[in-house]
Design goal:
The protein has helices at about 35-45, 75-80; strands at about 10-15, 20-25, 45-50, 50-55, 60-70, 90-95, 100-105, 115-120, 120-130, 145-155, 160-165. With about 180 residues, it is mainly β. Strand 3 (about 45-50) and strand 4 form a beta hairpin.
Length: about 180
């Protein structure tokens, strides 16, 4: 698939407190998954109702690029794997945005001041790309990591990790026994 050209591109700096930021419908109440923290540790991704939490390797400001498309992907493009070269991790999921507005914010950011983006109300398929995660120092302050989110209206993906970062910590499930 040729690299699609987005209709809108938003560059956002987000305070990723607790090594995460969220994309959430701006007016509808969204429920976070009960497994939010475990999901962020094991996959850098937690999916809730009208909210997607994205894990980061920095506990400070991170750069996020959000690309929004006018048209849905056709079935062939949905099924085709995206190009993962140059990215540490790639995932796909879906989000419901019934209000037609969503915000991008860290978990402790004042929602009133968070970046809000307007879109056509409805469901969106998302592909998330994590880049240069290895560039961040051991305390999580300095680095060149970045996060790219592509969103298509009326597109539904099978939620999954397409490529997992090799340094991502995996929880030992035997500890739960």
């Amino acid at each position: 698939m040729a690299e699609p050209i987005p209709t809108w591109v938003h560059q956002v700096t987000v305070f990723a407190d607790n090594f995460q930021f969220h994309i959430q419908d701006a007016t509808a109440e969204g429920e976070y998954p009960e497994t939010l923290n475990d999901d962020l540790i094991t996959s850098f991704l937690a999916l809730g109702d009208k909210v997607v939490a994205i894990g980061t390797v920095r506990d400070l400001d991170v750069e996020v690029t959000i690309e929004i498309f006018d048209e849905p992907l056709d079935q062939e493009d949905i099924e085709e794997e995206p190009d993962t070269d140059g990215f540490d991790q790639v995932a796909q999921c879906n989000i419901d945005l019934p209000s037609g507005r969503f915000f991008v914010a860290g978990p402790v950011e004042d929602i009133e001041h968070a970046k809000k983006i307007e879109v056509k109300p409805g469901s969106y398929g998302m592909r998330i790309f994590w880049k240069d995660l290895h560039s961040v120092d051991t305390v999580g302050f300095e680095g060149d990591d970045s996060y790219r989110i592509m969103m298509w209206p009326d597109t539904e993906f099978e939620p999954r990790l397409i490529k997992m970062w090799k340094n991502l910590i995996q929880l030992d499930e035997s500890e739960d026994d």
